[in-house]
Task: inverse folding
């Protein structure tokens, strides 16, 4: 059974959360991306909360700026260290020892998952990344790979000053193609039912400024026409090394994040496993939740 509640954090941010499983059990945390919300993890929350699947305390926060979580209007309030602070403060509240047994993260959630594991290897025991680029390979591909530059041009649209107004117009007419233009096949979008659309509408209707601010604040996006890739920063190497056991699950039909982002990843993540998922898109958490559950469970079993 999914519970919903508000977590008031010591630094003044409130996160709306979804959870399953008893407090006091080892903590699994799930971080969503754009344009999603914590509800995408419900099936996995219930799965891993069951005693036969580990009996974890499973928590999925809505990130700052999403759903009913605090949504500062200032762009600077969405810098990665602040988003990571939210995650770790929630972990301190929900875990007896302040540690995250397994951190599962997708898309923008993955950006903060990479950062949390890098900055807090003593508190993040293992990391599962689902189609979210490591900042080292993302910076490289944005600077050197024209295909990834083209695939990421949508980021500049979402960073426009009027992006949230454009996205909300005509019953979110510009939002649905993020899902429906990904990949091909008559059955690919069977998960996008009227009920799921209503869940998304309920989230988006509470505001899109925070979500768009993630794209405004990041320097890791392709240059605008006439711009130079020299504006894309190359993060210092010491801020890129992730020393916790990490599983990367990569849906190969992701049109926005290309497989080249996996090349050289082992240089930054010494304890790395990569599992490629054919026949799945960026929205694999909707398309193949049972596959994700199986792969995550296997990884946990291999990394005591």
Result:
């Amino acid at each position: 059974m999914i519970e919903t509640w508000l977590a008031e954090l010591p630094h003044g941010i409130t996160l709306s959360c979804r959870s399953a499983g008893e407090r006091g059990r080892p903590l699994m945390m799930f971080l969503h991306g754009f344009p999603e919300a914590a509800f995408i993890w419900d099936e996995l929350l219930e799965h891993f909360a069951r005693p036969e699947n580990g009996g974890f305390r499973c928590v999925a926060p809505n990130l700052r700026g999403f759903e009913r979580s605090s949504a500062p209007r200032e762009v600077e309030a969405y810098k990665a260290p602040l988003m990571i602070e939210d995650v770790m403060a929630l972990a301190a509240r929900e875990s007896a020892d302040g540690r995250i047994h397994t951190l599962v993260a997708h898309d923008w959630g993955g950006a903060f998952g990479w950062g949390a594991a890098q900055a807090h290897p003593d508190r993040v025991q293992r990391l599962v990344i689902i189609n979210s680029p490591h900042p080292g390979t993302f910076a490289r591909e944005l600077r050197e790979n024209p295909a990834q530059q083209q695939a990421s041009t949508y980021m500049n649209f979402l960073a426009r000053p009027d992006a949230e107004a454009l996205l909300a117009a005509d019953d979110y007419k510009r939002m649905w193609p993020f899902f429906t233009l990904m990949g091909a096949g008559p059955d690919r979008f069977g998960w996008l039912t009227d009920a799921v659309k209503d869940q998304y509408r309920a989230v988006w209707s509470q505001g899109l400024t925070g979500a768009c601010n993630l794209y405004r604040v990041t320097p890791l996006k392709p240059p605008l026409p006439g711009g130079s890739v020299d504006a894309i920063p190359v993060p210092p190497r010491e801020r890129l090394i992730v020393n916790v056991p990490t599983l990367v699950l990569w849906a190969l039909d992701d049109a926005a994040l290309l497989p080249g982002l996996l090349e050289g990843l082992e240089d930054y993540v010494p304890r790395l496993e990569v599992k490629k998922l054919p026949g799945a898109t960026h929205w694999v958490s909707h398309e193949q939740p049972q596959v994700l559950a199986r792969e995550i469970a296997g990884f946990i079993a291999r990394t005591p």
